[in-house]
Amino acid sequence: MTRVEYQTQIKAPVQRVYEYYTDPKNIQEAWPQDIVKESQDVSGSKNEEGSEMRVKGQYMGKEEEMRLQVVDKEENRKLVTKQIQGPFKRWDSIQEFHGNGTNTTQIKHTIDFELPTTGKIANIISGSQADNKIRQALEQAAQTVKQKLESGQA
Questions:
Q1: What is the dihedral of CA 40, 60, 94, 41, to 10 degrees?
Q2: Fewest CB within a 10 Å sphere: which of 8, 15, 33, 55?
Q3: Judging by beta carbons within 10 Å of its beta carbon (0-12, 13-18, 19+), is residue 148 exposed, middle or buried?
Q4: So where are the chain's domains?
Q5: How far is CA 64 from CA 60, 90, 105, 154, in A?
Q6: Which CATH class name applies to 2-151?
Q7: Which tens digit of pLDDT belongs to each residue from 3-56?
Q8: Is residue 1 pLDDT above 90, yes or no?
């Protein structure tokens, strides 16, 4: 299994940052367009424990769909999702939010993933390629969110 982590600070209140980060439709806005093409809530209960979202994307030139389920949620503190269907053998995402009582929020995003041993992704991507691509995408997504929230565009 591989772990990718990224941390950043955003000059915005934790509630605003948490709401933006945990809205499924913002995944496609924040993540690079060459990876995430579409994201949406499919259960009708936005980011409540047990709710599901669908993320369609390009993974090394192949179109894939991933279904994620919220497995843990603490308002303005944490959101944990895991892949229940999709191209990875395992995909767990943990987003942690720390507000310090001011207008600054610290975010730590951790993704634990495991590539499948067979299938489309296994045939075209190696572990280090996946690690690098996911790390770059995670950093780009965090910077996109930071820019949007700090400039008041979100």
A1: 10
A2: 33
A3: middle
A4: 2-151
A5: 10, 15, 33, 28
A6: alpha beta
A7: 999 999 999 999 999 999 888 888 888 887 778 888 888 877 667 888 899 999
A8: no
